[in-house]
Amino acid sequence: MFEKYILLCLASLRMHTFHVIYEVANFLVLHHAAMKYYPARQRLTLPLQPGKSGKPVVLNAKASLSEYCEKGSGSLTVVFKDLGPQVYYSTLFFWEYLGPLIIYPMFYYLPVYKYFGYEGERVIHPVQTYAMYYWCFHYFKRIMETFFVHRFSHATSPLSNVFRNCAYYWTFGAYIAYYCNHPLYTPVSELQMKIGFGFGILCQIANFYCHILLRNLRSPSGSGGYQIPRGFLFNIVTCANYTTEIYQWLGFNIATQTVAGYVFLVVAASIMTNWALGKHRRLKKLFDGKDGRPKYPRRWVILPPFL
Ligand SMILES: NC(=O)c1ccc[n+]([C@@H]2O[C@H](COP(=O)([O-])OP(=O)(O)OC[C@H]3O[C@@H](n4cnc5c(N)ncnc54)[C@H](OP(=O)(O)O)[C@@H]3O)[C@@H](O)[C@H]2O)c1
Questions:
Q1: 214 touches ligand 1 (CB under 6 Å)
Q2: Which of 154, 191, 293, 298 has the fewest CB within 10 Å, making it most exposed?
Q3: Which stretches are transmembrane (predicted)?
Q4: Considering only CA atoms, which of 258, 257, 256 is closest in space to residue 129?
Q5: 147 CA to middle of ligand 1, Å?
Q6: Checking DSSP bridges between strand 156-158 and strand 86-88, what pairing results, if any?
Q7: Rounded to whole angstroms, how far apart are CA atoms 136 and 233?
Q8: Which pLDDT score, from 0 to 100, does residue 91 have?
Q9: How far is the CA of 283 from the centre of ligand 1 (A)?
Q10: Per DSSP, what are the bridge partners of residue 148?
């Protein structure tokens, strides 16, 4: 049986048969009766020194084996971890966005409220129609961006993330759709609706432009690592794509005004803030101004003028 954590001593193997870490990963697939442990499923790290804590060094698949070899010994010990079944990032994003794209119009078009005990004729307000188009445009845009705009650095993600992320997006989609399309829904004033949707659409366009700027930081193969994002709102804020994402949901909520929509806004904003703090920290560390590396410019993290 292949255990979850396995210590492999490659000292006994002829080092010259391997040149890069990726070849070691392939070797593990072929020689351990474990075809299911394809390279994307493997995490190879250097062993932690006895008595030391912290995160182990993850081996770069494209790096040369000699970079990690123990000095003078010509041998290398690596720790294998099975990351579990993997899916492409595009597959993960597709399934998580498809749910809200289908669920929301179901509440708009189908007589679902009959099953919740509302027998009367349902009057659909213009704001409910615009909200449905706005919502569908947003998730359709995200799916298109997934396939045609983003250049991901990691090819795959654990399969379990599909279930976790779908639960998040599909549940919130149903929760918001239920209240926005409800027969007892009370619309806001026409002016408020126009301000909300107008502002939201502008933010969606800005969000799309931010994604184009991020895309241009990498080559089509996704290589190029992390660069300093520049231009447009990135000159002010590190995660301008999250800033515009949060504001476009604010626009939707100004126009539709439901508790469910604001709950989603708060949850999504806190998740993105957490990620933005990590991305800001990573860029500051990568671009520290030492040894010829550029210094990361002074910027807000996600929501100027607060953070
Ligand atoms: N409503 C919500 O709950 C919610 C939550 C999250 C996201 N979103 C939306 O989905 C969009 C995508 O989310 P995400 O978390 O994937 O965004 P992200 O990590 O900021 O980046 C989008 C793409 O740009 C790349 N990238 C980011 N910073 C880079 C840099 N400094 N240098 C080079 N490439 C860089 C990323 O590469 P990597 O593959 O290396 O990360 C990824 O491929 C967001 O912008 C937002 O509009 C919504």
A1: yes
A2: 298
A3: 87-110, 195-214, 259-277
A4: 256
A5: 13
A6: antiparallel
A7: 25
A8: 94
A9: 14
A10: none
| 3-state DSSP assignment of residue 88 | strand
- Is any ligand 1 atom within 6 A of the Cβ of residue 229? yes
| CB neighbour list of residue 59: distance below 8 Å, 6 or more residues apart | 21, 44, 45, 46, 68, 78
User: What is the C-alpha separation between 142 and 184, in angstroms, rounded?
Assistant: 31
Positions of the chain with pLDDT lower than 50, given as ranges: 1-16
> Which parts of the chain fold into alpha helices (H)?
21-31, 89-109, 126-148, 160-180, 190-215, 240-256, 259-286
> Is any ligand 1 atom within 6 A of the Cβ of residue 245?
yes
20 φ/ψ angles, rounded to the nearest 5 degrees: -125, 160
Q: How many CB atoms lie within 10 A of CB 30?
A: 9
- Identify which of 90, 143, 214 to mutate to test ligand 1's pocket (most ligand atoms within 8 A of the CB): 214
CA distance 115 to 278: 44
Q: Does residue 95 contact residue 169 with C-beta atoms inside 8 Å?
A: no
- Global pTM reads 0.84
Q: Which residues of 68-88 are buried (b: 16+ CB within 10 A; e: fewer)?
A: beeeeeeebebbbebeeebbe
3-state secondary structure at position 268:
helix
Nearest ligand 1 atom, CA 217: 33
Does the C-beta of 208 come closer than 6 Å to ligand 1?
no
